């Protein structure tokens, strides 16, 4: 486990315990794979507005209930979506904690920083510098 300091824009440095980067890449690959399908990405978008019954999700797509079940299993297994059964109905909601972790991770790996896995100085005169 790596240790690093961050101020979070407050000017106050705090010690963060960050899991090994290889472990972080592996753990974040799971939800990224889950949303690498346009239908699952659309389902996540739908759930961002709140909990929905499976039947309401199915109304928006041109596929069968077993296909929806397949997509929902992948999303639930990734941790991005939570399921709750009430009688014969299944209600799905976005796991906001997992979604936030994924968004944070994407921001980290797409922002130039000292702790990048691969960091190289920009060639002279290219105008890009980390």
Question: Can you describe this structure?
Answer:
This protein has 130 residues and is α+β, with helices and mostly antiparallel strands. The protein has one domain: Winged helix-like DNA-binding domain superfamily/Winged helix DNA-binding domain (Arc Repressor Mutant, subunit A, Orthogonal Bundle). The protein has five helices and five strands; from the N terminus they run ββααβααββα. A hairpin with a 7-residue loop joins β1 (2-6) and β2. α1 (21-34) runs antiparallel to α4 and α1 (21-34) packs across α5. The chain is elongated.
Helix and strand topology:
Elements: E1 2-6, E2 14-18, H1 21-34, H2 38-47, E3 52-53, H3 54-59, H4 65-78, E4 81-86, E5 89-94, H5 96-109
Task: Tell me the strand order in the biggest sheet.
Answer: 3-5-4
Q: Major sheet: size, sense and barrel closure?
A: 3 strands, antiparallel
DSSP summary: helix tally: 5
Categorize the overall geometry.
elongated
What's the CATH superfamily, by name?
A: Winged helix-like DNA-binding domain superfamily/Winged helix DNA-binding domain
What is the rounded distance between the termini?
Answer: 24 Å
The CATH architecture assignment turns out to be Orthogonal Bundle
Q: Can you count the beta strands? A: 5
Residue share in helices?
40-55%
Give the H and E element order: EEHHEHHEEH
The fraction of residues in strands falls at: 15-25%
Q: What is the name of the CATH class? A: Mainly Alpha
Mean pLDDT: 82
Rg, alpha carbons? 19 Å
**What count of structural domains?**
1
